[in-house]
Write a structure and sequence with these properties.
240 residues, mainly alpha, Cytochrome Bc1 Complex, Chain D, domain 2, two-stranded antiparallel sheet, binds heme C
């Protein structure tokens, strides 16, 4: 049973052609929903740009505090530093932050918690060497320390002692690390400034490690100088 040769024979090619023609056809635009003409869109954009610039200059010094669209906390900028774009830290906070990374040099022995290792490396946490006289502390780290010492009532006498790890640091870096150890793990003592480190460096020209008895004279002596912020600040109050 075969179809007559002159009758319509829908084959797949015809169907494809038919369907793609239908697919090419765009849906009729609904009245009112036709896209705006190109020139109208450009015009709107140009107006928006000009208006934005105008608004910016008319509101004067744009500040988050006064132009805060959310209106929280009575115009006070919640960001640290009050919205001038920079996080403002006082000199003590800055020293603590930098000192924390500088402490990596010391942490291998004195440990990240400042606890040291019994019988090997003395603790910095709660150490009278750390929170005591800054004349002594700066000298220990600048020139090194060897021989028997007592820290928090425990004796240490590690062969070779401590090398002058601070000597290779800039005065600022050393000051920051010392400020950090004096104010971490429960320690609290006035910050050590770059100027204080410089003062010791310029007057003390020792080439060998200290011993505990050499340093006894400095146990309670503090390098004179302004303490700009933090515990025991002597100058302007810390920036809030
Ligand atoms: C390689 C190990 C090592 C490193 C690194 C090291 N120390 Fe020490 N530190 C010692 C040893 C050992 C002593 C004890 C020396 C002695 O017995 O005479 C000591 C003693 C001290 C003391 C006096 C005692 C005390 O515990 O308070 C201070 C302060 C100190 N170190 C601070 C530092 C600081 C700050 C750094 C980093 C800049 C540092 N040390 C890096 C091994 C180290």
């Amino acid at each position: 049973m075969s179809a007559p040769s002159n009758s319509f024979q829908p084959d797949s090619t015809d169907l494809d052609r038919l369907h793609s023609a239908v697919k090419r056809e765009k849906a009729d635009l609904k009245p009112g929903l036709e896209p705006a003409p190109m020139f109208a869109m450009f015009l709107a954009m140009i107006i928006a740009v000009i208006a934005g610039g105008q608004l910016g200059s008319m509101t004067g010094d744009y500040s988050f505090g006064t132009s805060n669209p959310f209106g929280f906390s009575a115009g006070k900028d919640p960001r640290p530093g009050g919205g001038d774009g920079a996080v403002v830290m006082d000199p003590f906070q800055t020293a603590m932050k930098k000192g924390a990374s500088g402490y990596a040099v010391c942490g291998g022995c004195h440990q990240g918690t400042g606890s040291g290792i019994p019988g090997q490396f003395p603790p910095l946490a709660g150490s009278e060497w750390v929170t005591g006289g800054t004349e002594r502390l700066i000298r220990v780290v600048q020139h090194g320390l060897v021989g028997a010492i007592t820290v928090k009532g425990q004796g240490f006498n590690t062969p070779g002692g401590m090398m002058p790890f601070g000597a290779a640091m800039s005065s600022g870096d050393l000051a920051n690390v010392l400020t950090f150890v004096r104010n971490s793990w429960g320690n609290e003592a006035p910050m050590i400034t770059k100027e204080m480190v410089d003062k010791v460096r310029s007057t003390e020209k020792r080439a060998s490690q200290w011993t505990a008895s050499d340093l006894e004279q400095y146990a309670k002596a503090n390098v004179l100088g302004d303490v700009p912020a933090g515990p025991g600040a002597t100058t302007a109050p810390a920036v809030k």
